[in-house]
Amino acid sequence: MQWRSIVVGLVVLRLSLSCVLWLAFGLGPNVSWGFNFHLSFNLHKLDLLFREEKGTDQRGNSWSQRIHGQRYEETTRTCAKVGEESLKRSYLSFFDGNKDEYVRRYSSFPDTLKAKMKGMAKEMFYFGYDNYMKYAFPEDELNPIDCEGRGPDVLNPSNININDVLGNYSLTLIDTLDTLLVLGNVTEFQRAVKLVIDTVSFDKDSTVQVFEANIRILGSLISSHILLTDPKHPFGKVGFEGYDNELLHLAHDLAVRLLPAFENTSTGIPYPRVNLKTGVPPDSINETCTAGAGSLLVEFGILSRLIGDSTFEWVARRAVRALWSLRSNETGLLGNVVNIQTGQWVGKQSGLGAGMDSFYEYLLKSYILFGEKEDYRMFQAAYESIQNHMRRGRESCNEGEGDPPLYVNVNMFSGEIMNTWIDSLQAFFPGLQVLNGDVDNAICLHAFYYAIWKRFGALPERYNWQLQAPDVLFYPLRPELVESTYLLYQATKNPFYLHVGMDILQSLEKNAKVRCGYATLHHVVDKSKEDRMESFFLSETCKYLYLLFDEDNPLHRSDNKYIFTTEGHVVPIDKRFREKQWNDLFPCEEGVLTEREMNNRSPPNNISNCNRIPDERRYTLPLKSIYMRQIDHMVGLF
């Protein structure tokens, strides 16, 4: 009798379990019973379990199937008879529970809290800036743990992690100039400008990366000069008596010292490094990354138009055209590392992060500033190739089934996925999508990066979406996620993005603040630190955080439009930058743009694509709760 009771008990238990599973997975989103089940298994399996994979295009709705590979295929074949539509609904229904928690948390942001966050961002900037000036100036960077200055590593010239950026030219002070104006401190801005004029020289035996010197130093000098001399843009009259265009002269001097990088290269693509005294080093390599060589046009172009010398724009534009001519005929994509003498691709990976990011950014921003139709057509062709070959996931961000959109690293010739990581620099891309008017895709990609931030309190340098874990663990206080957050808030005015900014601000205060500033996180999990505060923390990260919470900033109230360089420097959109004092010495060469690209991509009449989300597509949240919960799960938050 005892064994019969055991058998009966097991049968009853199995029937009960089957009933529970039917209730959980079969009824769909309309039945909740008021319970909140915390499920510990991987819900991606359920979506794939009920999906017929045979004949599915690799660029279809799902990229998460790569997380567990072959086991999904086997399971799918055993479950092919299950009703497809109801089971697709049941997959997303797992994320439909507790949707109100997202609405409660993100749907409002009081003005008092906004003012508090604005004050915190301001204090953060001055804590870093004041300590740099106290302990580090005139050196390039602040070591915030030891409260010391840092310059080039003269004992180890091969230490390019330091020497590419630090040129012994007071980097942090120069890079920070226009941030002082954004914060409304005209007095300190004028004092800092005078310090730069009196103390900075580029006649130094320093070998620096052309790209870094361009975006951090040249870009800031040009931006600050424009703001000093043009009372229309956007902070009013901030000039001072006796200023005689010294910042512009410094910018010109630096640009001349960078020009040797463009000499003796058979493709027109520049060498990656120059010595500011002697030119290209004799042992210089012939390889450079696409972003490094192709992201000079904004700063070089503005300089040319300010001084009436076409040389700088000419060499920068020639480099962009040379890179563009090397793109794949099959996919339209570019690689990430190229040989400047042979034009052969050394790195065949195409993505949106390191080595590629600002190349795309400057195609669009160059058009906005200079009005050259060629730049816009190249950008649109590149963007189309990105959407066709890098984008995975469902077609729409806020509608439909499948995984959220994600941009993966692919082979430039085949479009096949090359690895399963994305890097933190890619977090800039939602901001660029906003500028291009593709706010829908920007919302989803930003949400993915924000979910990673919520999990770690920082963005790891590389995140493996297959393993749901960091591949490279450090976080050097990068600004890209903050930048995209700010631009999405400007486009949508949704309070969700104020909450994102608050989370980032509070995480930095908690995890990165040290005795004399804010330190690089060596390890995003255990929060160990490195003694370095890069200049972009003050020039970009703090600037975008402050602007996010400062609705009344002159940049937001000005009648004139402006744009940010890739280093976050403020540049007015000015009609004088659309006028050249020279004839076009380098017209668009045959083969740079195909006939289809020339004819089918007319630039918009309105150069600002930053349109608001239409009313019919507005939600309490920018991304529906069900999709937010899905993304949070996919990065391991529950």
From TrEMBL:
<comment type="function">
    <text>Extracts misfolded glycoproteins, but not glycoproteins undergoing productive folding, from the calnexin cycle. It is directly involved in endoplasmic reticulum-associated degradation (ERAD) and targets misfolded glycoproteins for degradation in an N-glycan-independent manner, probably by forming a complex with SEL1L. It has low mannosidase activity, catalyzing mannose trimming from Man8GlcNAc2 to Man7GlcNAc2.</text>
</comment>
<keyword id="KW-0378">Hydrolase</keyword>
<keyword id="KW-0812">Transmembrane</keyword>
<dbReference type="Pfam" id="PF01532">
    <property type="entry name" value="Glyco_hydro_47"/>
</dbReference>
<dbReference type="GO" id="GO:1904380">
    <property type="term" value="P:endoplasmic reticulum mannose trimming"/>
</dbReference>
<dbReference type="InterPro" id="IPR001382">
    <property type="entry name" value="Glyco_hydro_47"/>
</dbReference>
<feature type="active site">
    <location>
        <position position="480"/>
    </location>
</feature>
<dbReference type="GO" id="GO:0005975">
    <property type="term" value="P:carbohydrate metabolic process"/>
</dbReference>
<feature type="active site" description="Proton donor">
    <location>
        <position position="461"/>
    </location>
</feature>
<keyword id="KW-0735">Signal-anchor</keyword>
<keyword id="KW-0479">Metal-binding</keyword>
<dbReference type="InterPro" id="IPR036026">
    <property type="entry name" value="Seven-hairpin_glycosidases"/>
</dbReference>
<dbReference type="GO" id="GO:0006986">
    <property type="term" value="P:response to unfolded protein"/>
</dbReference>
<feature type="active site" description="Proton donor">
    <location>
        <position position="212"/>
    </location>
</feature>
<keyword id="KW-0325">Glycoprotein</keyword>
<dbReference type="GO" id="GO:0005789">
    <property type="term" value="C:endoplasmic reticulum membrane"/>
</dbReference>
<keyword id="KW-0834">Unfolded protein response</keyword>
<keyword id="KW-0256">Endoplasmic reticulum</keyword>
<dbReference type="GO" id="GO:0005509">
    <property type="term" value="F:calcium ion binding"/>
</dbReference>
<dbReference type="GO" id="GO:0004571">
    <property type="term" value="F:mannosyl-oligosaccharide 1,2-alpha-mannosidase activity"/>
</dbReference>
<dbReference type="GO" id="GO:0044322">
    <property type="term" value="C:endoplasmic reticulum quality control compartment"/>
</dbReference>
<dbReference type="GO" id="GO:1904154">
    <property type="term" value="P:positive regulation of retrograde protein transport, ER to cytosol"/>
</dbReference>
<feature type="binding site">
    <location>
        <position position="566"/>
    </location>
    <ligand>
        <name>Ca(2+)</name>
    </ligand>
</feature>
<dbReference type="InterPro" id="IPR012341">
    <property type="entry name" value="6hp_glycosidase-like_sf"/>
</dbReference>
<protein>
    <recommendedName>
        <fullName>alpha-1,2-Mannosidase</fullName>
        <ecNumber>3.2.1.-</ecNumber>
    </recommendedName>
</protein>
<feature type="active site">
    <location>
        <position position="357"/>
    </location>
</feature>
<keyword id="KW-0326">Glycosidase</keyword>
<keyword id="KW-0106">Calcium</keyword>
<dbReference type="InterPro" id="IPR044674">
    <property type="entry name" value="EDEM1/2/3"/>
</dbReference>
<keyword id="KW-0472">Membrane</keyword>
<comment type="similarity">
    <text>Belongs to the glycosyl hydrolase 47 family.</text>
</comment>
<keyword id="KW-1133">Transmembrane helix</keyword>
